[in-house]
Amino acid sequence: MSTAKSRRDQFSEATRAALLDAATRRFAELGYAGTSLEDVAGDIQATRGAVYHHFSSKRALFEAVFARLETNAVDRAAKAGSHGDNAWHSALLALDEFLTQCCDPVYGRVVWQEGPLALGWTCWIEEEQKYAYGLVEQFVRALLESGQLAPVPLVTTTQLAFGMLGAAGQALSAAATADQPRIKAEYAEVMGRMLTGLRAMPTDRSRDVVD
Q1: Given CB 3.0 to 4.6 Å as the disulfide criterion, which of 14, 21, 92, 119 pairs with 123?
Q2: To 10 degrees, the CA torsion angle through 43, 25, 73, 94?
Q3: Which residues of the chain fall below pLDDT 50?
Q4: What is the pLDDT of residue 10?
């Protein structure tokens, strides 16, 4: 009995993963409005009922695709940052990986272009904060605690950095493929310079972090 149940569970998980893969392709190529549950089901030779077994609606399916893409992007940025020699180097590595992710046609289209349309602006912002804000705060806090940044308010600095990253994500996802390298380099340079402007002077490093 337990073996049969395990096999059913494995089949169910495989079906869900296949639906997410198919939906991701559809949302990236045709957008949210141009994707139907019937087409997603047809792509894996499943029934509409199989889709509803895992996802209550097209929006729920989109939310699952969105969550998987964002989780992967955040994990990749965090992993890139973990290879830094210090807090400053880690932040720059994470920034570069984030900008690279935004150039990806699937992540860019689904998260940055279709996300606000499918979820609504307010919900989309909340989802972005849920997945990415904590990582941004983590890097800002590390910069402050290591003395790499002058003592500035943690929350305000994190919000500003989060906003700049959002602007970069929208710009890169909307750009033509040929223009993305230039735009990525420009955002990396400008954001790097802005962070450099907040770097601590030697006399600042003995002061406390401002929460």
Answers
A1: 119
A2: 150
A3: 1, 205-210
A4: 78
CATH at 169 = 1.10.357.10
Residue 116: per-residue pLDDT: 96
- Per-residue HEC secondary structure of the chain comes to CHHHHHHHHHHHHHHHHHHHHHHHHHHHHHCCCCCCHHHHHHHCCCCHHHHHHHCCCHHHHHHHHHHHHHHHHHHHHHHHHCCCCCHHHHHHHHHHHHHHHHCCHHHHHHHHHHHHHHHCHHHHHHHHHHHHHHHHHHHHHHHHHCCCECCCEHHHHHHHHHHHHHHHHHHHHHCCHHHHHHHHHHHHHHHHHHHHCCECCHHHCCCCCEC
Contact in structure between 19 and 55 (CB atoms under 8 Å): yes
- End-of-domain residue from the set 17, 32, 55: 55
Whether residue 182 is contained in a domain is answered as yes
pTM (predicted TM-score): 0.88
Same domain? For 47 and 67 the reply is no
